[in-house]
């Protein structure tokens, strides 16, 4: 259904959709009544509504961090005020993703880790205490069922949503965090596989994946999969492939795209191209060390026409604050953890943590916009 947009002047954090005529985008700042918000995900529903979820509260890792959900109704032009849908007062609930099952259920997957206040002298974060949980909605996200633990292995983490392959297999990219002194540099990626629509799962570890996490799993041809990874080394995005429905994987290798040890998001488009959103920044060239740079700006979207091997088409989605010098680029605020989704009408929907996690920004473009082709006004 068509939506009406307000011309961009000064965008307010009210959830209204604005048309940015200079960039030819549609944008919105989704309302955020919390001190901090992070790690958004998007899902289009069969009725045309779009859900956006993220984690919100005082600060990442605190006990009051919970999962929030907002809705953009079909045909309307304003995101709703978010509502908190998770319910553990003692754990920090993070990294949500929304998965629409073939029979119409919505699975909200997220992590739950020991809150910082429980172990105040921890050397780094407490991701090594996490497990992966699920809540199910059977009414298009209007209400959510009980909390269930899906993956109880200590240190289990997730970011991207469950994928359904062309043979009906479900796959879910996880990574495992450990209690050591590497600051998450020892994390490994495990692909969870289900051949009974999520009733049971078995894990396949990707070889050589130490420090390569946030696997985006894409079926580029029947049975042939591409995985794209965040790098704990803050060097480049990494690439791995499987030719047997995810049963085995190649050792991850560098792509040409930089990575700053921050989350990425990739999807296969209706055209057959791959689209990836990320921070086009690197801070290190040694793949064996762990680096956590502050800079998470700007945000770009890249396209690949060879299943993720090369990315010749790139356009900035978020310009940031404009600092680009090596001595003053840290003056940029953080614009980070982007997610990309393609709706049934072909448009590309992007959401990310905006202005040091002040709120979630939502941007709508098209593949033609990324490629530099003219679009309708």
Order of helices and strands: EEEEEEEEEEEEEEEEEEEEEEEEEEEH
Which percent bin holds the helix content? under 10%
Percent in strands: 35-45%
User: Taking all residues together, what is the mean pLDDT?
Assistant: 96
Task: Label the overall shape.
Answer: globular
Radius of gyration: 19 Å
Judged by helices, strands and strand pairing, the structural class is: mainly beta
Distance between the termini: 17 Å
Explain the overall architecture.
The strands form six sheets. A six-stranded mixed sheet has the order 1-2-3-27-26-25. Strands 12, 13, 14, 15 and 16 form a five-stranded antiparallel sheet that branches. β18 (224-231) and β19 (236-242) form a beta hairpin. It has one helix spanning 367-371, and strands spanning 6-7, 18-20, 25-30, 36-44, 50-57, 66-72, 83-84, 91-100, 106-114, 131-137, 148-151, 156-158, 163-164, 170-176, 188-194, 202-205, 212-221, 224-231, 236-242, 253-258, 265-268, 274-278, 299-304, 313-318, 336-342, 348-354, 359-365. It is built from one helix and 27 strands. The model has no long low-confidence stretch (mean pLDDT 96). It is mainly beta and 377 residues long. The radius of gyration is 19 Å and the shape is globular. It is 1% helix and 43% strand. The longest helix has 5 residues, at 367-371. 47% of the residues are buried.
Task: Offer a few descriptive terms.
single chain; 377 residues; mainly beta; six-stranded mixed sheet; five-stranded antiparallel sheet; 27 strands
Furnish the topology, listing elements before pairings.
Blueprint: E1 6-7, E2 18-20, E3 25-30, E4 36-44, E5 50-57, E6 66-72, E7 83-84, E8 91-100, E9 106-114, E10 131-137, E11 148-151, E12 156-158, E13 163-164, E14 170-176, E15 188-194, E16 202-205, E17 212-221, E18 224-231, E19 236-242, E20 253-258, E21 265-268, E22 274-278, E23 299-304, E24 313-318, E25 336-342, E26 348-354, E27 359-365, H1 367-371
Parallel strand pairs: 1-2
Antiparallel strand pairs: 2-3, 3-27, 4-5, 5-6, 6-7, 8-9, 9-10, 10-11, 12-14, 13-14, 14-15, 15-16, 17-18, 18-19, 19-20, 21-22, 22-23, 23-24, 25-26, 26-27
